[in-house]
Amino acid sequence: MDAIRTDGRAAAHDWAEAQLAPGERIEGVEALRGGWTSRMRRLDVTGPQGARSLVLRSFVTPFYVRHAPAMLAREAAVLRLLRGTEVPAAEFLALDAEAAHCDHPSLLMSALPGEVRIDPQGAAPRAGLLARMLVAVHALEVAPADRPRTYEAWTAPDRVRVPAATARPELWRRAVDVIRREPPAYRPRFLHRDFHPGNVLFTGTGPALRISGVVDWVETSWGPADLDVAHCSTTLALLYGVPHGLDFADAYRRAGGELATAPADHLYWRVLDALGFAPDAEKVAVPWRELGRTDLTVEVLTGRLEDYLAALLDRYATVASADM
């Protein structure tokens, strides 16, 4: 069997197996691809009631190990909250946030059906499903005591890293100027905060295409719907091209979602998110390449990010100026 660790006793394996029902045992372990913040393993379990699969999430790099207790506790709480809702999420099973039993801080949950799909073919119908699912996430009613933390911005005007070889420095100056203001007022909602195709599982094709799971709830926050829409929009622009990123907000509205009415306010959230990927979106491209998108080179991603910023400014800044 593929042990989770090879240097002596497999502590995480033993801990996970201790959470199983009587008579169940772990028969196999398989590494899951597509993530970059944590190590994901599928555990195949057999027992008197038949076979099932679980997922073991472990934070292993020093930065994420330091933040793991809060992040994993947040994800565990969210998985409990989502149980029985319209949002398909894993079932929480056990938590070792301080690595008291495992080699690294870990969370055990059920495995969801489906797979991550980020290939260009079929991107448009998947985007429609993504928009409807995000509307469902934002519609969740959460009691004040259960609300997650207020959102955190992932960049700021003085932290933006402009591509060193850019031929469009004025574009970057204009984009950074957009976020040199106080955040717009907003109606707070329950946010996934890292919603994009890499955190959504799909099954079926054609008319049978469905979202079977939404994963990675460690960044869940309380904040503006525009910010979740912005994050998915930027990701779609990087994966498939600028038009896909521009169109997502429209798809979200068609699905019943509500966004900021003032173009300048909506532009703020869109640009704030896009600038968080600067200078080249390389950190998210690594898992995408592992999933087969070897076309997403640094040059391609940097070009798409700049083109997307330019398109946002052309679409929303011009309208905002006309309304002033």
List keywords for this structure.
9 strands, globular, 324 residues, 15% strand, 9 helices, alpha+beta
The helicity comes to: 40-55%
Largest sheet: 5 strands, antiparallel
Which shape, going by the Cα principal axes? globular
Our measurement of the CA-to-CA distance between the termini, rounded to an integer number of angstroms, reads 66 Å
Number of strands: 9
Class derived from helix and strand content: alpha+beta
- Oligomeric state of this protein: single chain
What portion of residues belong to β-strands? Answer: 5-15%
Q: Calculate Rg over CA atoms.
A: 21 Å
Average pLDDT confidence is: 93
Low-pLDDT residue intervals, each spanning 5 or more residues: 1-9
Strand order of the largest sheet: 1-2-3-5-4
Order of helices and strands: HEEEHEEHHEEEEHHHHH
Q: Helix count?
A: 9
Notes on the protein architecture:
It is a single chain. Residues 1-9 have low confidence and may be disordered. The chain is built from 9 helices and 9 strands. By secondary structure, the protein is of the alpha+beta class. The protein is globular and about 65 Å long. Helix 5 (225-240) packs across helix 9 (298-323). It has a 5-stranded antiparallel beta sheet, with helices on both faces. Strands 6-9 form a two-stranded antiparallel ribbon. Strands 7-8 form a two-stranded antiparallel ribbon. It has helices at residues 11-18, 62-82, 123-138, 169-178, 225-240, 242-254, 263-275, 282-290, 298-323, and strands spanning 25-31, 39-46, 52-58, 92-96, 106-110, 189-191, 200-203, 210-214, 221-223. A hairpin with a 5-residue loop joins strand 2 and strand 3.
